[in-house]
Specification:
The chain has 12 helices and 25 strands. It starts with 6 loop residues before the first strand and ends with a helix. Helix 1 packs parallel to helix 11 and helix 6 crosses helix 7. It has 541 residues and is of the alpha+beta class.
Length: 541
């Protein structure tokens, strides 16, 4: 096989699905190439502040080659990552198992006995990602616990399961170097977490269990080749086949406007792991261009957002809320609403520009006017406190961001078409019923907590003025189904309409999880790879 193809398997994307696939297939004897559009990051080149937008934000056309991306759509604004290691470089380390009820919702219902099958895959994912209880509880976590008590929900308060290395039991301050603590010396040396709160701007202390420290690291040791800053532009079945002859993959430079660096690769198998948005966009392009026209018409349908809302509570001049891990604790406001305390490290204040004073009311044209009235009243009553709360500098140190997620069913659809404002290109666009940008229970919780703890609540600008939610978890669009009429992939993650093609990333998820999806993506990818036999088994067949 390797005499005919450049690689046995080419994986597009190096996030949770891509990195799992790279390691497991390398272990099974396959030669693996990983195409990653983003850059490779390390503690030495991480941005010291997210105000250094050229090294934090991802907008290559504007010269911004960081790892944090904001995608704007009619119905939603999506936050996600672009890097070697995918979103693991900028995610909040939170690795939670969703409630069993998620397997009874959505397109994957009945495709497997999920409740009995998934626990073993979750266990493997946890071991590989180094999941353990947060051991750096800090001011924001103590504050959230007080809020949970005030809401009568203290019994649901918990410290998060996170992919962070904390050192041994006597290591309470962090920063100590250890030989590989996870893989019997096969992994890299690590340093224990110091609780700086800067997980989402790139861990410079070598404590975060990002994928370049586990799955991807081990895959590269076994021979997998990672091509950073490499964008996949086209994928075509060889010999005009249905994929049984393999694929040719055309790439170009992922971040440069002028260095095209066009290349062609061939592989027997192809795995799409470019994130929910990335895989949908590429598959739409392949379907509409004629490169892979038999992709299911279900592509782009039932995209889910975890029914999320981002709110905040600022304490001008108060205790330092930036300490700890990015998401250190959470609780359930009710049976459907899950709230986590989130933070950025001191000095990482850029996202303050997305927040404005908390405003109630109902979504619609009247809400911006209500915001203005709320702001003016606050300035009259508490002028100094209000002005300090509106100052972008000091935001991370003084603020708890609340990530509010719900398991309530809801979705939108993605389409790939020409925008009215620039009809010379095609882009992903959302359609369908609006996703609620306002969760009344969550808004009331922040207002109550602000009064209880003498803080200043904050809403997202996008929710107030554009009536769209800002989300950190875009899922679905290439969901599992029994056939091409109900899904894009089958129960083993195989792409309907083609052989030797798979999808393993957030786009495969079939329901709102109500928790951070990284662990579930990892576990489902472990399951998908378990169905692919070792290479020597195929060769001897």
């Amino acid at each position: 096989m390797t005499d005919t193809y450049d690689f046995d398997v080419i994986i597009i994307g190096s996030g949770f699905g891509g990195s799992v696939s790279a390691l497991r297939l390398s272990e099974k004897g396959y030669s693996v190439g990983v195409m990653e559009m983003g850059r490779r990051w390390s503690p030495e080149n991480m941005p010291s502040s997210n105000w250094k937008v050229w090294d934090f934000l991802w907008r290559p056309l504007l010269g911004l080659r960081g790892f944090f991306s904001l995608r704007f759509f009619r119905h939603v604004m999506v936050l996600h990552g672009n890097a070697v290691g995918g979103g693991s470089v900028t995610y909040a380390n939170t690795l939670l198992v969703p409630p069993n009820s998620v397997w009874a919702d959505g397109s994957w219902v009945g495709l497997d006995d999920w409740e009995s099958v998934m626990p073993s895959h979750y266990a493997t994912a946890k071991q590989m990602l180094g999941v353990n209880k947060n051991q750096r509880l800090a001011a924001a976590d103590r504050a959230l616990e007080k809020m949970a008590i005030a809401q009568g929900r203290h019994d649901t308060f918990y410290t998060t399961d996170v992919g962070v290395f904390f050192g041994d039991k006597d290591d309470t301050s962090g920063g100590k170097r250890y030989p590989d603590p996870y893989f019997n010396g096969e992994g890299p040396d690590r340093h224990s977490c110091i609780g700086c709160g800067s997980c989402m701007t790139g861990c410079i202390y070598n404590a975060k269990n990002s994928l370049d420290k586990n799955y991807l690291y081990l895959a590269e040791k076994k021979g997998a080749q990672v091509f950073e800053q490499t964008r996949v532009d086209d994928v075509r079945p060889l010999e005009n086949s249905d994929g049984d002859k393999g694929y040719e993959i055309f790439t170009s430079h992922g971040t440069s406007l002028f260095r095209k660096n066009k290349r062609r690769f061939t592989a027997k198998k192809i795995i799409f792991s470019a994130s929910s948005l990335g895989s949908q966009e590429l598959l739409f392009k392949l379907k509409q261009s004629g490169s892979m026209p038999n992709i299911s018409d279900e592509l782009g349908k039932r995209v889910r957002t975890n029914a999320e809302s981002l709110l905040a509570l600022r304490f001008p001049g108060g205790e330092d809320m930036s300490k700890g891990v990015a998401i250190g604790s959470g609780f359930y406001l009710d049976d459907y609403t899950h709230i986590e305390a989130t933070r950025y490290g001191k000095g990482h204040d850029l996202l303050s520009l997305l927040f404005t004073p908390l405003t109630g009311g109902k979504p619609g044209l009247i809400r911006p006017f209500l915001w203005l009235a709320t702001l003016l009243l606050s300035l009259i009553r508490h002028p100094v406190k209000t002005l300090r709360a509106c100052n972008p500098f000091g935001f991370a140190k003084e603020t708890i961001i609340f990530l509010c997620m719900q398991t309530i069913e809801g979705h939108l659809n993605m389409r790939y078409r020409r925008p009215w404002y620039f009809p010379f290109i095609k882009v992903l666009q959302t359609e369908g019923e609006p996703i609620p940008s306002f969760i009344p229970a969550a808004n009331k919780f922040v207002a109550d907590s602000a009064a209880q703890m003498n803080g200043m609540g904050a809403s997202m600008v996008s929710e107030l003025f554009f009536n769209i939610p800002t989300i950190a978890h875009c899922m679905g669009g290439c969901g599992m189904g029994e056939s091409p009429k109900s899904g894009v992939i089958d129960s083993q993650n195989r792409l309907f309409g083609y052989k030797n093609a798979y999808v393993c990333d957030g786009s495969m998820l079939g329901a709102n999880l109500g928790v951070n999806p990284s662990l579930t993506i990892t576990a489902l990818s472990e399951r998908a790879m378990s169905f692919i036999p070792p290479k020597d088994t195929i060769a001897s067949a």
